[in-house]
Design goal:
single chain, alpha+beta, binds zinc ion, 2 domains
């Protein structure tokens, strides 16, 4: 994912919903867009939050660590660390 631009959400094109695949294969449904939190817009704060998560992930991968290893290094729960990289 590229850093998001402020304005209309590019993931859902401003609708606040995205298409999700279901089982059995071929079935789809609409679900709330996680990137804009179903608002259809990316504001400065949300763009900064997502960009920081992407920066953390790139930095971790550059050091060759898994999320679990990075969480351990920082002394935090793996799920909590994952939320830093993927703020939803
Ligand atoms: Zn969206």
């Amino acid at each position: 994912m590229n850093p998001p631009a402020v304005g209309t959400c590019s993931s859902c094109r401003g609708t606040g919903e995205v298409t999700a695949l279901l089982c059995p294969p071929g079935k789809v449904t609409q679900v709330p867009c996680r990137d804009c939190r179903a608002t259809g817009r990316i504001d400065d704060a949300r763009a900064a939050e997502i960009t920081e998560g992407l920066r953390r992930r790139a930095d971790r991968l550059e050091r060759g660590l898994t999320q679990a290893q990075e969480a351990e290094r920082l002394g935090m729960d793996r799920i909590a660390y994952s939320r830093l990289e993927n703020p939803r």
